[in-house]
């Protein structure tokens, strides 16, 4: 499948990508920066390329923003980034996120179903919640990509 752009921010933890989505100004880049401070790797900020490969959605940097992350009050700064990673979960930053859920919902992107959770963007422990969401609900690393 030909890669297509999606307005998302994306980081990878231990090789599995988290798509961070939500309305403009909600804190997607800030969450990515906080996760990067905890060891995550940048894939893309504000726009990524997605492609389906053998039933796995793969994220890669958009050429126009590769290696760049907007840091509020500091500008657009360069960071090392990964060339690609399989998407394991979609997190939506949403002020109206439910307080309690029984488990993740599902989001279909290019025919691939991914775990989906809404998180309140103003949580003081938002990076920890994102890591826990990936650990508990994220898709496993595809075996064909493990080599």
UniProtKB/TrEMBL annotation:
<dbReference type="GO" id="GO:0016301">
    <property type="term" value="F:kinase activity"/>
</dbReference>
<dbReference type="InterPro" id="IPR027417">
    <property type="entry name" value="P-loop_NTPase"/>
</dbReference>
<keyword id="KW-0418">Kinase</keyword>
<dbReference type="Pfam" id="PF07475">
    <property type="entry name" value="Hpr_kinase_C"/>
</dbReference>
<keyword id="KW-0808">Transferase</keyword>
<dbReference type="InterPro" id="IPR011104">
    <property type="entry name" value="Hpr_kin/Pase_C"/>
</dbReference>
<protein>
    <submittedName>
        <fullName>Hpr(Ser) kinase/phosphatase</fullName>
    </submittedName>
</protein>
<feature type="domain" description="HPr kinase/phosphorylase C-terminal">
    <location>
        <begin position="9"/>
        <end position="77"/>
    </location>
</feature>
């Amino acid at each position: 499948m030909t890669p297509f752009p999606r307005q998302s921010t994306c980081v990878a933890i231990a090789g599995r990508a988290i798509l961070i989505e939500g309305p403009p100004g909600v804190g997607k880049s800030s969450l990515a920066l906080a996760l990067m401070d905890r060891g995550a790797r940048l894939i893309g900020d504000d726009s990524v390329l997605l492609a389906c490969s053998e039933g796995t959605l793969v994220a890669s940097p958009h050429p126009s923003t590769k290696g760049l992350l907007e840091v509020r009050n500091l500008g657009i700064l360069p960071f090392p980034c990964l060339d690609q990673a399989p998407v394991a979960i979609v997190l939506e930053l949403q002020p109206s996120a439910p307080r309690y859920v029984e488990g993740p919902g599902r989001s279909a992107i290019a025919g691939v179903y991914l775990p989906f959770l809404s998180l309140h963007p103003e949580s003081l422990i938002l990076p920890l919640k994102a890591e826990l969401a990936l650990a508990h609900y994220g898709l496993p690393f595809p075996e064909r990509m493990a080599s």
